[in-house]
Amino acid sequence: MNPLIELNKLGQSVWYDNLRKGLVTSGELKRFMDEYAVSGVTSNPNTFERAIAGTTEYDEDIRRLLKEGLDDDAILERLVTRDIRLAADVMAEASKATGGIDGFVSIEVDPRLAGDAGSTIDEARRLFA
Question: What is the domain partition of the chain in residue ranges?
Answer without folding.
Answer: 13-128
